[in-house]
Each structure stands twice: as structure tokens, then as C-alpha cells.
TrEMBL record:
It is an enzyme of class 5 (isomerase). InterPro entries: A-D-PHexomutase_a/b/a-I, A-D-PHexomutase_a/b/a-I/II/III, A-D-PHexomutase_C, A-D-PHexomutase_C_sf, A-D-PHexomutase_CS, AMG1_II, AMG1_III, PAGM. Binds 1 Mg(2+) ion per subunit. It comes from Allomyces macrogynus (strain ATCC 38327) (Allomyces javanicus var. macrogynus). Keywords: Acetylation, Carbohydrate metabolism, Isomerase, Magnesium, Metal-binding, Phosphoprotein. This is Phosphoacetylglucosamine mutase. CDD domains: PGM3.
């Protein structure tokens, strides 16, 4: 028996799989109750080694986080060399390994994947690891490192990082032109670029809800680099007491359309919320009458998309800007983008991995999910055009050149996106109310339904229609037809054990009727679990 096989078997013995659990590599990797994840971590370690070997020894990233999920959960996802999400064809290998029943089967799979992908097992492998503030993180990283070590990878444990910082460092290790591969390199790059972007403009003031997560210490670190260029107040930064994401953070604010707990909103101030691993952001403010106004990912697309289009035009550059959204995008945001901005809008399934790939088709691709997860990416040609332009408006070129370096192109990044939005607002000299006035949202509602088996739900057409369970789509269509400008769809979450129902319509009343009727249909016809929620129709 080879030494590696023996090492994999020996180490695997310390990470037995619980009986009767089925694991799936979902929207953003494996994600579930942390108590069930130990064997998964070990096996993800093996897979990360294989992935690095398969790519000639390039550095692979592994992030241990469950992002917006409750603190009892954890998760793990792999990051490919350029900082993008793991190649989709490898997700199947991850799922196979995670579900192997015996240690022998784990070892067999390691070698069969190597064979199938024609991997040279003598190739060296290199992996960087990061984690968020969850109490389960340290032990899970230790299990991951067991898998990496047993399979011979060189491991660098970066400790506490935001998810986007881990993506950034992974990219820089493989592509030094992108930046210095350290947390300090990240702060230096984006803070220098922000200072250049807003030089000469009035510094803005922002209060940031960090969801009691890793974003809090990291944002505090960034402020020392930003100096006077931005006045940041960090709130909800208690990472010690197990209250991560509890009634705070981007997901709470987006889903409930209300402010997080922990602080009050002064009229017309600038506020935003990160999620637990700081890869999502939403903004909000209270008006003079105290009414709450949410500015979500669709709004970020509109603000940033319009600014980039205008600046590219002013710079006299011939670059195509395109936008990517998902079915969760508010219908009126799509109208604004297509009709007012005249920008091409493409749709993909939920999950930044899908949006990112689609956005790569444009010179400049702007993608944000409604939940506030997204970024802007520039093709190499666009980057060179912007860098090398000698004619055109100097100010516009200066803005584009600074903006590129504020943006974390590898993945949605709450810290970087915050600076991008503030940079645009500073140039526009806009308050959040001005941004809010770009278009009016259609009333929308998101409802979670707990069912016995969410994997029984299969979607088609970029998540907008259900193929299975049979007949449910026809019932949904019949309800949608009853309201004006109605739209509703149902899809299984890839990060929580629920089915999500989205609805929008012309009026709040019609929207809520549609949302709760469809939620009731799902509950009644597709195996709802527990007590039927009172609001379901
Ligand atoms: C992850 C993904 C996002 C996705 C979200 C919700 O975000 O990265 O692209 O929108 O999950 O996915 P689902 O509706 O399938 O649960 P995060 O911030 O939780 O990593």
C-alpha cells in the first residue's frame, strides 16, 4: 500500500462520518450544523490538495464560514487560484467524498478522482486557509488541516479573515500583479485607491453594523489605513458572546426590511450592514419622519452601474458594460437598468458563482444579488484600455483607474463594496435619499418554508420555474395571474434547510397575498414540516 494511502486512512480514522447524514456542496459549499461537519472538513482537505495538484501546484483557498447563517452552523468552501469559486465540475467530487461511508472508500475516492482528472500525484500542492469568528471554527480548521497534511499539501493557516480577504490573498499568491498576498496588502491596496478616488472631496461619515462578525475587527483595522478619508463607526462588533447574525446583519435587514438591533438611526445618516463573513452589504437610512429605507444589492447595481457607464462615456472609451441579476432582483430595478440606463441585463441562477461567470462575458460586468452580494469585474482588455488610454477626459480616467483598485474583483466584498458605493456617492454629492430616488421598488416579499426534503425541488430557467414537484408550477402560475405585475418563484436554498418563496406585485397587499398563498401551496402540497405558519394562506 502506498504511504499516502496509509496516511489518508490513518488520519481519516479520527474523523468518522455520522450515520444517516447526506451532505451536499450547495450554493456556497457545505453548510450545516457545525456538529456534523468534522468528517467533511477532513475530506475537503483531501480535495483541496487534489485541486491544487490538478492545477500544477497553484495555491487553492479554503474558507471556513457559514456566512449569514446562525452561529451554531458552520461551512466550508473552496476557492480557485484566481480567487473565484471552485470550478463547478469539482463540486460533484466534493459531494462524493463527503458522503463516503468508510475510510477505505475515502481513500479509494482520492485515488479515483486523481485518475479521472489525470492528476500527477507527485506534483506539490499548496493551500491557504481562513475562518470567520464562529466558535466551532478552530476545531474544524484543525480537521481540515489533517486532511491537507495527510495528502501532503503545504498549508498556510491565515487564521481569522473575512471571506473576501481569503479570496484576495489566494488570488495574489497566484497572480502577484493583483496585490500583496497579505491582509495588510489588502488594506493598503483598497485604502490607497479609495483615498485617490475621493481626493479633494468632502469626507463621508458611515455607521456599519458588522453582524457581530469578523467584519468588525477587520473594518477597525482598515480605518487606520483610511485616516481622514472616511469617518467610520463600527457597531454590532461583539464577536465573543455567540450572537453572530442574531437580529443584525445584512440578511436580517434585507429579509425583514427593517433596521438591525443595537443602535438608532439618525435622520438621513448613512448606514450599512455586513453579513457574518463580510461578503454582503446593504445600505439604509431613516428619513425625517423616521421611515426606514433599504438600499439593497439591486440599488448598488443601479448606482454603481450608472456611474461606471457615465464615466466610461466621459473617458471616451468604447467598453461594453453589462449587468447580471437573479430572479430575486426587483422587477423595477431591471426596468430601470434596461429602459433608463439602456444596459444589457442577463439573468442566472442564484449564487455568485453563476453571476460571476456570466459577468465575465462583458468588458465590464456589474453583478449584485438583491441580498447585497456582488462586485464589478473588468476584462483584461478593458483593464488595459483604461490603463493605457492617452486621450479622453483626464478626470474620468482617473476615477476609473482608482475605482478598479477599490473593487475586489475576486468575489463580493462588503468592505470593498462599501468603499465603492461611498466613492460614487461622494462624486455625485448624493445623500442616500438621492440614490433611493433613482427608481421605486415594486413591493416584494421573501418567505421561508420548512419542508421534509428540499432536494425534491428542481428549478429551471434561472430559478424562475419549478420542474419538480410536478404540478406545483401550474398552481403558482394561476396565483400569479390573479395580481397585477405579479411574479413569484420557489427554489430550494443551497445554504439553509428551507425552501424560499419570492413574490412581487403592484401593491403591498397583492404582493403579500401572492407570497403567503404560494408559501401555503408549497407547505400543503410539498411536505411542509411542523405547524403550518399562521400567515400562510
Ligand atoms: C451565499 C451565496 C449567495 C447566495 C446566498 C443565499 O451567500 O454566496 O450567492 O445568494 O448564499 O443562497 P441560498 O438562497 O441558496 O440559500 P452567503 O453570504 O451566505 O455566503
Amino acid at each position: 500500500m502506498s504511504n499516502v494511502r496509509q496516511a489518508i486512512l490513518d488520519a481519516s480514522a479520527a474523523h468518522p462520518a455520522p450515520a444517516g447524514v447526506h451532505y451536499t456542496y450547495g450554493t456556497a459549499g457545505f453548510r450545516m450544523n457545525a456538529d456534523l461537519l468534522d468528517p467533511v472538513m477532513y475530506r475537503v482537505g483531501l480535495l483541496a490538495t487534489l485541486r491544487s495538484k490538478a492545477l500544477g501546484g497553484k495555491v487553492i483557498g479554503v474558507m471556513v464560514t457559514a456566512s449569514h447563517n446562525p452561529v451554531r452552523d458552520n461551512g466550508v468552501k473552496l476557492v480557485d487560484p484566481m480567487g473565484e469559486m471552485l470550478k463547478q465540475s469539482w463540486e460533484g467530487y466534493a459531494t462524493q467524498l463527503a458522503n463516503a461511508q468508510t475510510h477505505e472508500e475515502v481513500a479509494d475516492l482520492y485515488f479515483s478522482i486523481a485518475q479521472e482528472c489525470e492528476i500527477d500525484l507527485d506534483q506539490s500542492a499548496s493551500v491557504v486557509v481562513g475562518r470567520d469568528t464562529r466558535p466551532s471554527g478552530e476545531a474544524l480548521v484543525a480537521s481540515l488541516i489533517d486532511g491537507l497534511t495527510a495528502s501532503g499539501a503545504i498549508v498556510t493557516d491565515l487564521g481569522l479573515k473575512t471571506t473576501p480577504q481569503l479570496h484576495f490573498v489566494t488570488r495574489c499568491l497566484n497572480d502577484p500583479s493583483y496585490g500583496t498576498p497579505t491582509e495588510e496588502g489588502y488594506y493598503q491596496k483598497i485604502s490607497d485607491a479609495y483615498k485617490t478616488l475621493v481626493a479633494g472631496l468632502e469626507p463621508l461619515k458611515i455607521t456599519v453594523d458588522c453582524a457581530h462578525g469578523v467584519g468588525a475587527p477587520k473594518l477597525r483595522d482598515l480605518t487606520t489605513y483610511l485616516g481622514d478619508a472616511l469617518d467610520v463607526t463600527v457597531v454590532n462588533g461583539d464577536v465573543e458572546h455567540g450572537i453572530l447574525n442574531y437580529h443584525v446583519g445584512a440578511d436580517f435587514v434585507k429579509v425583514n426590511v427593517k433596521q438591525p438591533e443595537g443602535f438608532d438611526l439618525a435622520p438621513n445618516g448613512i448606514y450599512c450592514s455586513f453579513d457574518g463573513d463580510a461578503d454582503r452589504i446593504v445600505f439604509y437610512y431613516a428619513d425625517e419622519a423616521g421611515a426606514f429605507h433599504l438600499l439593497d444589492g439591486d440599488r448598488i447595481t443601479a448606482l454603481v452601474g450608472a456611474f461606471i457607464i457615465e464615466t466610461v462615456r466621459q473617458a471616451g472609451l468604447d467598453l461594453q458594460v453589462g449587468v447580471v441579476q437573479t430572479a430575486y432582483a426587483n422587477g423595477n430595478s431591471t426596468h430601470y437598468l434596461r429602459d433608463s440606463l439602456q444596459v444589457p441585463v442577463a439573468f442566472t441562477q442564484t449564487g455568485v458563482k453563476h453571476l460571476h461567470h456570466k459577468a465575465e462575458e462583458y468588458d465590464i460586468g456589474v453583478y449584485f444579488e438583491a441580498n447585497g452580494h456582488g462586485t464589478v469585474i473588468f476584462s483584461t482588455a478593458a483593464r488595459n484600455t483604461i490603463r493605457n488610454a492617452t486621450h479622453g477626459d483626464a478626470k474620468a480616467l482617473h476615477i476609473l483607474r482608482s475605482l478598479i483598485n477599490v473593487i475586489n474583483e475576486t468575489v463580493g466584498d462588503a468592505i470593498s463594496d462599501m468603499l465603492v458605493v461611498l466613492g460614487v456617492l461622494a462624486h455625485r454629492q448624493w445623500a442616500l435619499a438621492d440614490w433611493d430616488a433613482l427608481y421605486k421598488d415594486l413591493p416584494s416579499r421573501l418567505v421561508k418554508v420548512v419542508v421534509g426534503n428540499r432536494h425534491a425541488f428542481k428549478t429551471i430557467n434561472a430559478d424562475t420555474q419549478l420542474e419538480e414537484p410536478a404540478d406545483l408550477q401550474a398552481r403558482i402560475d394561476a396565483e400569479v395571474a390573479k395580481v397585477s405585475r405579479g411574479r413569484s418563484f420557489v427554489r430550494p436554498s443551497g445554504t439553509e434547510d428551507v425552501v424560499r418563496v419570492y413574490a412581487e406585485a403592484e401593491t403591498r397587499e397583492e404582493c403579500d397575498t401572492l407570497a403567503y398563498t404560494v408559501a401555503g401551496l408549497v407547505f400543503d402540497l410539498a411536505g411542509g414540516v411542523g405547524e403550518r405558519p399562521a400567515e400562510f394562506l
